[in-house]
Amino acid sequence: MRQLGSSAAEFERVLRLLFPDGIRADPDGLTLSCENTQIRFAIRTEDSRRLGSLQLPTIHLEISLLAGEAATATRLLALIDQANQRGGG
């Protein structure tokens, strides 16, 4: 389980940038197929977080390894985490 300060559309865009041919979407989330590994991301939109007058979209991810090696999945998830980081000030 992970919580991201992102919208579902932003998360999907990042995945498609990283893995252009490896993403399949359905009404409940996304499935990544890469390097003989399949990772399922069930996405649930949550209430936006407020920081002063700023509202940040938030999603809840349930992540499941459907096929492949755990070490490969861990490496792919690290790439995804890095791509979803936002700069701070």
Describe the 3D structure:
The structure is a single chain. With 89 residues, this protein is of the alpha+beta class. The chain has a single domain (2-83), classed as Molybdopterin cofactor biosynthesis MoaD-related, C-terminal domain (Ribosomal Protein S8, Chain: A, domain 1, 2-Layer Sandwich). It has two helices and five strands, in the order E-H-E-E-E-E-H. It has a five-stranded antiparallel sheet with strand order 1-5-4-3-2. A hairpin with a 2-residue loop joins strand 4 (37-51) and strand 5. It is elongated, with a radius of gyration of 13 Å.
Offer a quick outline of the entry.
The chain is of the alpha+beta class and 89 residues long. 28% of the residues lie in helices and 47% in strands. The longest helix has 14 residues, at 70-83.
Reported by name, the CATH topology is: Ribosomal Protein S8, Chain: A, domain 1
Strand order of the largest sheet: 1-5-4-3-2
Mean pLDDT across residues: 90
**Tally of separate helices:** 2
Distance between the termini: 27 Å
- Overall shape: elongated
Total number of distinct structural domains: 1
Element-by-element helix/strand order: EHEEEEH
Strand content: over 45%
Q: Which CATH C-level class is it? A: Alpha Beta
**Any idea what the CATH superfamily is called?**
Molybdopterin cofactor biosynthesis MoaD-related, C-terminal domain
Task: Give the uncertain stretches in residue-range form.
Answer: none
**What's the helical proportion of residues?**
25-40%
CATH architectural grouping? 2-Layer Sandwich
The count of strands amounts to 5
